[in-house]
Every structure is written in structure tokens, then in C-alpha cells.
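Hi R.,

Here's the chain you asked about this morning:
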Amino acid sequence: MFASRRPRPSKGLSAWRALGLCLGLTLGASAAAAEQPVRQNEIIVTAPSRWLQAAPERSLNGADIAAYGLDTVGEVLAEIAAGEGDREEAAYFVNGRRVQGLGSVSDLPAEAIVSVEVLPRGAGVSAGARPGQRVYNIALRRELKLLAGRAATRLATDGGWSSSRGELNFTAIHDQRRISITGKLQNDAMLLESERGIVQPGSSPPGAASFRSLLPAADRLELSAAAADQLAPWLSGSLTSRLSIADRMSRLGPFAPTAGPSAPLEQASRTMVASTDLNLNGQIGSWQVGLFANYINNRSRTSTDQVVVAAGQPLPLTVRSKIESFSGQLSAIGPLITLPAGPVTLNLSAGASRDSIRGRRLFQGATTRSSAALTGSTLSAALDVPIAGGGGDFLAGLGDLSVSAELSRQQVSDFGSFNNYRLSMLWRPIQRLTLSADFGRSTSAPPVATLDEPTIETPGIRYFDPVRGETVDVTLITGGTPTLLRQTDETRRVGVNFSPVSSLGLRLTADYSEFRQRNAVSEFPSPSSIIIQTFPGRFSRDVSGRLIAVDVRPVTFPSRSEHQLRTGILLDLPLGRGGGGMASIGDDEEGPTDRGPIALTRIRPRLQLSAAHTWLIASELVPGTGQPPIDLLSREAVGFGGLGQPRHRFDATVAYAERGLGVRLSVQARGSSFIEANGSTANVLRFGQLASFSLVAWIRGERLAPRSALLRGVRFNLAVFNVTGRRERVEDRFGLTPLSYQAAYRDPVGRSVEFSIRKTF
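And here is the predicted structure, written out as C-alpha cells:
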């Protein structure tokens, strides 16, 4: 599948072979699983971490996790985080110990989870998290040995596109020792414009739609291995390695040196990413010390057909790049002094990094090389100060109150030194009410790839020209921008979490946030009159004024700001007598079986409801130095370049689950937005309102055939994405849609159906 030649447009044949292989591995091992000895019931003992003292805002047990019908720890945490509406990266703890991201546990099966606790923002400063950072604590089983296989295929109901994937995972957990080995394979078929009835510009040759792809053909292989252990009574560690190989091939339009199209222009790419993470945590007296090291090697090769005058065939432009990243961090956390409300915790850390990129362009025998490197260092100190409560009697009438502060100094080569800070407050006046607030400022240098990535010229890209009001095919220039500036982010946030009836699992949330960016690094926006006036050098035209090339490399805007209010409701309602408890083997109708402690077939009925409304109160952007700010929301002071955003967004999920089956309905709805079309608010492109529904249903094999050894440990999933098949509609003041904003460009796949089967043994 990963040969050196370009991949051919695929309609899913190789995917079906992969699907058959995974099904064979999954179902063929069921007989061996049935012959395994009976395992005894497991007694699970959990205890709170000495470093995480704050009470969680939400706790999910094994039955709650099983009700999602998801397969891995990473999928479960992504679903929970989406419900929380977190915009920033969260802090993760595994069995009460801080880990750098989810890398070491993301591929573990969902059956490995005993519970997930969602702690308030700022609750993990004393354990190594940043002030104001969301905290998730994942408790894993002490004993687990599991092999899981998954196979899935997804088809577009409009035809023309399919995607298939397979996955195998082996996991073994014994106390603090765990190992996980995972292999994933995915194939996506190419989707052509002719398969969606895309209207071509009048200048296009006949049959041009069959020479252009809406979605590329893609193959992806991922391998990962993660291990963790208690290395000594005072030292634990984890090591995670990953390898990812991805091939993509797109059609860019017809190559027509004479009268009619002879062959499609193509762009083929391969990306290989290898990474390794090392995490060590030690306990020295009352202090917790840690070491985190990371290495990433990212290699890519892209070959793009170019049209050259007087050439009888396309000539390839080949671009290679290699990005290497090294980073390391040392930290020490421990008590500094003891106040009446508890100990003051000090968190010290020092880190260093080096990022480099090397590029090479080869075209018509000429080679161009480039290289760049950024080195950086960081020193930071954070304090967590309890003011009241903290489990004691000091100012107990105030409840639990603590404040945290972090100050860091960062130095990056070519960008100088800068100071960053962040302050946060966490207050729980009563058990069911939590208030949090944080504000801070941080400065960062652009990623090295955005500075010096080799340029690639891609012909045949459909583009809307707002000056002439026409859609044309242009050459798109991508790559790095060496003149990007360092970006400064200022954030302010206030949040409230209230549980009026804890027995119902009812939770009400509200978060108000403001952020402002100076020298905001951004992708180049979609076209508008203001964009063309601000960046005239990015647009090239022929002698007749027709747009022929656009440079879309990243840009820096002087400033951007946004004010947002998000309100939400969460209801987790157990139904029936004794609902809400965690299912165990002892609850199973058939008693102990060879499925081991992960069997959760007796999930009592439960109803889950979550809904959130996001109100974008204000959004402004200054496109260029000395220019007035642009309101990205108002129709009268219209936004531009695709940065126009809907003022309102609504997300909701309703789910029902019981023993062995479940169904989940999700909806995402957003209001209309506007961008300027041709320099006059009299002609505005309107992006219409859109509501998208998705439906997922799953059932366990034991529910279908309780005594079948073949179906034991099997789960069938059926998902329908974009149930109604609606796509976003874009219109000008005459009710017409520019060709580059056709509905199939906004959502090429449309409605799709996915069927998957998973087997554990």
C-alpha cells in the first residue's frame, strides 16, 4: 500500500481487504477466547490523590463510560472534553499522577477506565497543572489483559466516496505496570467533482469535473507502543513511541496543451512522523519531581504537476522537508510553607527545546535548499495558596478558597526574551457551587514550519475573485513566511458551575471569556476586497486583470479580539431502581464468565442530556497597521476572508443506554454569518444558518444472543452523519452562489453511514 510510486485513485478495494483481514482477526480468535480459563471477580480499590485535593465537578464511573459506546480512552476523553467546551489544552492525571498529554494512555481500551473525574479549572496547580487549566483525572483498572479488534466502513449516501479502517490493540495492566501495542490502518477513496455535479466555470474544457478531486485518495498506517511501570518505590515512568505513514493523491484539473483534456494534473504526497515521549515521576520526601522529554521527526515529500509552456506533458515539482523537534522539562513540586488553610505549594520548572527544518525543491533539474532552526529555554515558578477552608476550620464560612499564580520567562532565538504570567482563583462557597476565574498573558514564537517551510505551487485551485466577481482556477502558493512576528495572547475568563440537585446529576455551567491577540499569526483568509487592499502583493493577475496566482502563506494581523459567553446544562439521570451503579461480573445474569472484569453487560437504563449555547458577543480584527478594526459579526461593518463567524452556536446531545445497547443523537446548529464580497456592503456574501444531526446506535452481541460464544465481547455500531444531508448555502445579494462556494465544496461527503464491529477477548 505504501509503495514509492504515486497511489492510484482508490474506490476502497484495498480498504475492503483490510476490513476483511481485521474481521478475520477479530472473529477468528473467538474460539480461542472461549477456551480461556475463568477469571475471578476483581476487587477495585481507589483512593484520592494526595496532590488533587479539590472535589470534582463531575465524576463518571464504568457504567457511565460504557454508555458512550466508545472504544478507547482517547475517544472517551475527547467526548467528555467536547461537552465541557474547553478551548485550551487540559491537564491530565492518570491514577492521580500528572502525565504530559494523553499519549501514553490514549490507545488503551475504554474498558480499562474505572472512573474519570472532571475537576475545576485551577484545581491541579499543586500537582503540576497551570493556573486556570482544566483537570481530568483518569483511574485505570489494576488488572486487565485484553485484545481488541475493530473494523469499520463508511459510505456516502450520495455515492462516490467510502472510507474503511481497521485497528488492533493489545493491553496488559498489572498494578502500576501497563503496556499497550496498537496498529491502525485507514483507506479513503477519492471523490471527484463529477460525482457531486460541481458546476464548472465557462472557460473549462468539457469533462473537466472528472479531472478534479473534492477529496483526495488517502492511505494511513499508524503503529504505537506505550509502556509504564513503577521503576522503584519512589520512581515511576512511561515511554511512548509512535510511527505514522500517510499517502495522499489529488487531481488538480485537466492538462490541456491542445484542444481537449488529455490527463489530470496530480499532486501526490507522503508524510512519515515518528515520535517518542519519556515521562519520569519521582517522590523525594514531600516533593514530587518530574522529567519529560520528547522527540519528533517529521519527513514529507510532495510532488506536484506543473504546466510549463511548450512542454508536451506536466513537469513535476518535488518538495521535501524534514522537521526535527527536541524538548525536555524538569519540574519540582512541593510544600513551601503551611498556612492556617493548608500548605502553600511551589512548582518550579525549567525546559529547553530545539526545532529545525530543512527543505529541498527540485524542478527541471534545478535544486534549491533551505534550513532554519529555533532554540528556546523556559524558567517558570507557580504558587498555589489556600486562603480558606481546605478541609480545616480556618474561615470555614467562606468555603474553600485558593489563588494561584505563575510567572515564566522564555527565550527563543531570533525572537528575544519575554515574560509570561497567569493568575487564577478557585472558590467553592458551598458544596454544589464552584466559581473560578483566571487571566494572563503569554507570548510565543511561530512554529518553525510556518517560518521556513518550502514553497509549493499548486495549479488548478478554484478561487473566488471578489474584484471581478468571478470564480477562476489559480495557482496557489503555500509554505512558510519568514517575516512572521511573535504573538502575544491576553486572556480573561470567569466561570460558574452549579449542581442544584446532585441526586439527578444535574449541572449548570456558564463561562465568560475574553481574549486579545497582538501580532496574531493566522492562515491567509479567503478573498475579500479588504484582504486584497491589505495584502496586494499576494495576488497576481495577467494583462487582462484576470487572477492567476494567490500566495496563501501565513500572515500576521496587528490585533484580534473576541468576547464570548457559553452556557450549558448537563443531566445524567439513572432510570429504574438502583440505577447509576457500576456494573460488574457479579451483576451479570450469568455470573462470572471468561470475559473477565471488563464485562459491563448489565448497564441499568440511563438518560444523558447535554446542551450548550455559545454567544459570540464581539469579534474584531485589525487587518493592517493603521487601519480601523473590522467587526467580524456585524452586517453593516462586515467581516472578511472567511473570518466572519456566526454570533450564535448551539450544541446538544441526547443519549439513552441500558444493558448492552445505546443510542445517541447529536445536533450542531449555528447562525448565519457574512463576509464582504466586492468592497461594498451592498453586496455581501451570506453564509446561511445550518443545523447538522448525527445519530449513533450500538448493541452488544450478548444482547442479541446471550449464550453465543462467537458474539461474546462483540459490539456492533451504526452511525449516520449529517442525517438530513443539508449543506451550508452561500448567497450574494441576488441570491446567487459563487462557483467556489457551491454546497459540495462546503461539505463534499454530505450524509454518510458507518458500520463498525468490535471484538474483545
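One quick note: The CA atoms of residues 432 and 502 lie 8 Å apart.

Cheers,
M.
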